[in-house]
Design a protein that fits this description.
It is built from ten helices and 13 strands. By secondary structure, it is α/β, with parallel strands linked by helices. Bound molecules: adenosine-5'-triphosphate.
Length: 318
């Protein structure tokens, strides 16, 4: 699939490193780029280095190695050139909670040149009806929406969203996705971090999965999932054993496990494996109860990276 965006790299990250006091290397040389009008998702296990990376992109800290360019500028040393063109939604907003939603937005708008009307920003995130409510009375999900409204006030060309839908209910999450898509369609470049694989799969044009400070895999969601096997599971019909099934390697099955009478198969040829099993069942006159076919997914890629990592850790500690 062709990635969205133009050849212009709005975000360029090259061999980026971040080392915390005590010498802990949280970001260990990562490189990627994001084109104008693209949505790029950073995924990762807990502590993988997502927030540490995003803070460097936002210019909040100076990298310990490598370089970042946002709209062609260094976001740390050329903050004045970059900041007015970017919108940032941090994990913790931390507003004065006694102010109302509209007062908070107005205060924020005062710090932004060419801010869009406050009412418009609140309407974009579905908070128009809460303008007079004090921030401390908002629910967690509503605060998240307010964070997003503030990030949108300056009509940014580049938007950094750190876990934008954490704490939102299913409807709020979908509303946020629609909004991000609309912003992207209007040309905004979006970099987001998320723990929700479904969010990255549905929203991102390209993504990277970080693990222990490095990019373990990156590409379009289709490219990343294409490398993963699909899964089939079913219950063995009564009176049958695994040996009675058609030879699994002839079905393109790469591995399998049996749990009581439940059979789980992994294959890179879902249609061939499913057809082989169904034809066998039809001929034998039996039913494959609980039959479940799952295409390769981002979840599989993510779990694969976590599995590999824990196997390596076990090797090291053995
Ligand atoms: N100020 C700090 N000093 C020392 N270590 C830190 C500091 N901030 C973060 N770390 C460590 O750096 C690593 C990466 O943290 P980071 O917050 O970037 O991960 P993350 O991918 O955003 O994690 P999560 O998904 O849990 O939010 C973690 O091991 C964390 O403990």
């Amino acid at each position: 699939m062709e990635a969205r965006g133009t050849n212009e790299h709005v975000i360029e990250v090259t061999d980026l490193r971040r080392v915390y006091g005590g010498g802990f290397e949280a970001v260990r040389g990562i490189s990627f780029h994001v084109g104008r009008g693209e949505v790029f998702a950073l995924l990762g296990t807990n502590g993988a280095g997502k927030t540490s990376t995003v803070e460097l992109l936002e210019g909040l800290e100076r990298p310990d190695g490598g370089r970042v360019r946002i709209l062609g500028h260094d976001p740390y040393t050329e903050r004045a050139a970059v900041r007015p063109r970017t919108g940032v939604m941090l994990q913790e907003g931390g507003f004065p909670s006694e102010l109302s939603v509209a007062e908070t937005a107005r205060m924020w708008a005062g710090c932004v040149s060419g801010a869009r009307p406050v009412a418009e920003a609140l309407a974009l995130v579905g908070l128009a009806g809460k303008a007079g409510v004090r921030v401390k009375q908002l629910s967690g999900g509503e605060r998240r929406r307010l964070d997003l409204a503030l990030a949108l006030l300056g009509e940014p060309e580049v938007l950094f969203l750190d876990e934008p839908t954490t704490g939102l209910d299913a409807e709020g999450r979908r509303d946020t996705w629609d909004l991000v898509r609309a912003l992207r369609d209007a040309g905004t470049t979006v970099l987001l971090t998320t723990h929700y694989l479904e969010e990255a799969e549905g929203l991102a044009d390209r993504l990277a999965i970080l693990h222990q400070g490095r990019i373990a895999v990156s590409g379009t969601p289709a490219e990343v999932t294409a490398e993963q096997p699909s899964r089939i599971s079913f219950r063995l019909p009564d009176g049958y054993f695994v040996g009675d099934l058609p030879p699994l390697d002839a079905l393109g099955v790469c591995d399998h496990e049996i749990d009581g009478r439940l059979v789980r198969l992994r294959t890179r040829e879902l249609q061939r494996a499913a057809t082989g099993l169904l034809v066998w069942a039809e001929r034998a006159g039996v039913e494959l109860r609980g039959l479940d076919l799952r295409s390769a997914s981002l979840e599989e890629a993510f779990l694969g990276i976590a599995r590999e990592a824990s196997a390596k850790n076990e090797e090291v500690s053995a």
